[in-house]
Amino acid sequence: MKLDIRHTAMAISLAVAFIMLAGKLLAFYLTGSIAILSDAFESVVHVAATGIAAFSLWYAQQPASREHPYGYGKVAYFSAGFEGALILLAALFTLYVAVRDLILGPELERLGWGLLITGVLALVNLALGAMLVWVGKRHNALILVSNGKHVLTDMWTSAGVVLGVGLVWLTDILWLDPIVAIAVGGNILVTAVGLMRRSFRGLLDSADPEMTAALLRTLSDAVENGEVSSYHQVRHRQSNDQVFIELHLMFPDDVSIKEAHARVTSLELRIRRSFPKFNVHITAHMEPSSHDAAHPEGHESIHDPLAEGEAAKG
Fold this sequence. Notes:
The chain has 314 residues and is mainly alpha-helical. The chain folds into two domains: 5-203, Cation efflux protein transmembrane domain (Alpha-lytic protease prodomain-like, Up-down Bundle), CATH 1.20.1510.10; 209-313, Cation efflux protein, cytoplasmic domain (Alpha-Beta Plaits), CATH 3.30.70. Helix content is 68%, strand content 10%. The longest helix is centred in the first third of the chain and has 30 residues, at 75-104.
């Protein structure tokens, strides 16, 4: 069986997460630095989040079923939101410990070893995070992108700790350690909010502006070349690497069903080519130009925001 690069990348991420946690705990044990402890706690969260992400990546790729005809891709948004919530907890804990240590005063020792260990781990996370984001974007795997951004957040956290602890080592100003931890906590907080917002947008089926523009551009071209008379009730949503599009297409009254179907098939092919990185599922409803006459009891009343937005621009 061919090994999926997405699963390979996630397996590497999970293995490295455990190594990171062990290394940072060792660095804290040697130094007593609260800044390093905050970095280690973020890694505890990262281990848990990566485990959830690994399961979600596998689950999202399961084929559609009778109970879930649209597949399981939306678990990616749950995973991203859960990871964001865990990062948020890490940020709050970091800020709490840092403020407490700022008030009570830190006790630090063997900072050289702590700096060396944390610096090496930061470089490993830089390479891992960049790889995860690249693979995730290439394969439209939100789970990998979210996990990669979490890894990069961990890297910036470690880099900030190295800078702060390095200043303490050079200057013997001990209160710099909790100050750095507070800055680290703030950075983690921003990342958490960003991931949770992206999760909410996905779960609420927010339309991607670039996707909307590409879809409407293809439909407008079809109207201009006379392939269809007009279109309305256009909507689309994304579920990880799956895109679902629904639309109504209108044809002249004298066009046969066979001809209309052929035109729709050609149009659907061009729409799919507009989204080469996605698996596109299109549901098209064909209607005659004498639209109102075809619905003597009234047409289904559905808000059509994409078509209205296009009309407003025109």
